[in-house]
Write a structure and sequence with these properties.
Blueprint (H helix, E strand, L loop, with lengths): L3 E6 L17 E2 L2 E2 H12 L4 E6 L1 H7 L6 E4 L4 H9 L6 E6 L7 H9 L6 E7 L4 E3 L2 E3 L5 E3 L3 E4 H14 L6 H7 L4 E5 L27 E13 L3 E3 L2 E3 L3 E3 L7 H14 L4 H4 L12 H14 L2 E11 L9 H12 L6 E6 L5 H4 L3 E12 L6
Parallel strand pairs: 1-4, 1-6, 4-5, 7-12, 17-18
Antiparallel strand pairs: 2-3, 6-11, 7-10, 7-11, 8-9, 13-16, 13-19, 14-15, 17-19
């Protein structure tokens, strides 16, 4: 279908899902939901282009998974679609929602085969129950449940959304905007299997999703900072009683920096320098505990759970033992795991090198993650 572009919408924040994890980052096997949907379309239909519309934060991570076209979304579905359409040059565009993750191939074929029969081809379900509007029954034969994906003539959809922007009208799907223009809508049979994931209870209706993989993902972090007189010293978020601290752009907590890199490494989400560059003055003197909290929240949002960490501090000075217990408590609290899953070790360099000369500290960290198991919800 070289005359058709696919747009997959997934820029929402999953506010109705009532979970720390965004829907698009739930895992089926080892594949996040957004990629599962994209690959299902990609394997069964030959599109000129596949466009994923999401948030900037998500796009930076999505690029590590697959080479699709990524476009930043807006503050509503309609705004996200309008942004996505900027990347469409084909005659037709097929638009679907990532949350509609179990679409049967035969349903897609029904939509595509009806190309040209209307300005928008829409899959529908008919109702079998009696319906009331306020206190009056209505004819259920005249009522349809509208689904996605929907196939539209690109220029007409763009025109409809441009008009909606001018008149400040908000439509919940493509067919509504196109119908408002007086254009013909062609209906085809939808599918109960193409249920949209909106709340946790919807999992019962989505048989195509596999349980998340039980694989453990491991990351390694390493960081070094030299000493600097006149600064406060923090290690693992704990204030150390010395008259010197670390030379650094932030508060210099070398242990937390190493831990952040280990966590990001396990998730394949880059490194601390990418997220918090020392060229950004907003991070000057930053509290590393806050940076770690931000990373932990991001891991949860993107479908990961923290298993355990093993952190080794290489230092001739200061002495670590008096602070180890408080370090464990602080880190375990931020990570949201039990204290016994936070192992902190300290060793020296046997007076060798810059560590032996008491010029700085190096920290090595190993962190383990697992995929969030939505089957337990």
């Amino acid at each position: 279908m070289l005359d058709t572009t696919l747009i997959l919408l997934g820029a929402g924040n999953s506010t109705r899902f009532e979970s720390d994890v965004k829907k698009q980052w739930l895992y089926t096997g080892e594949t996040p939901l957004w990629l599962h949907v994209a690959e299902q379309f990609d394997e069964t239909t030959d599109f000129a282009k596949i466009i994923i519309v999401s948030s900037l934060e998500d796009i930076s991570i999505m690029r590590n998974f697959a080479e699709y076209t990524y476009i930043e979304g807006g503050d509503s579905r309609q705004a996200s679609l309008r942004n996505g359409l900027k990347g469409v040059t084909t005659e037709y565009v097929l638009v679907s929602d990532i949350a509609r993750c179990c679409i049967p191939q035969e349903m897609i074929e029904r939509i595509v085969s009806a190309k040209g029969k209307g300005s928008c081809v829409v899959p529908t379900l008919f109702l079998t129950d009696t319906l009331y509007l306020d206190n009056s029954p209505i004819d259920r034969e005249q009522v349809k449940i509208i689904q996605t994906p929907q196939l539209s003539v690109t220029k007409i959809l763009k025109k409809a959304l441009k008009k909606a922007l001018k008149t400040e009208q908000l439509f919940t799907d493509e067919s509504s905007a196109i119908a408002y223009m007086g254009e013909k809508i062609h209906f085809v049979e939808g599918s109960l299997s193409a249920h949209k994931l909106t709340t946790i209870s919807d999992f019962k209706k989505l048989s195509c999703l596999k349980e998340p993989s039980s694989k453990t993902l491991t990351g390694f972090g390493l960081d070094t900072h030299p000493f600097e007189k006149g600064r406060k010293m923090f290690l693992c978020g704990v204030k150390i009683d010395t008259n010197y601290g670390f030379k650094a752009h932030s508060d210099g907590d070398v242990a937390i920096h190493s831990l952040i890199d280990a966590l990001l490494g396990a998730a394949g989400m880059g490194d601390i320098g990418e997220l918090y560059p020392d060229t950004d003055e907003s991070y000057a003197g930053a509290d590393s505990k806050k940076l770690l909290t931000d990373v932990v929240n991001s891991l949860k949002t993107h479908g990961y759970e923290i298993g355990n960490i093993d952190l080794t501090i290489l230092a001739e000075a200061p002495k670590i033992l008096p602070y180890k217990d408080q370090m464990q408590k602080t880190i375990s609290s931020i990570l949201g795991i039990r204290k016994n899953f936070v192992n902190i070790k300290a060793t020296t360099s046997e007076k060798l090198g810059f560590i032996g000369r008491k010029e700085g500290v190096t920290v090595h960290t190993v962190a383990n993650l697992t995929y969030f198991n939505w089957k337990k919800l």
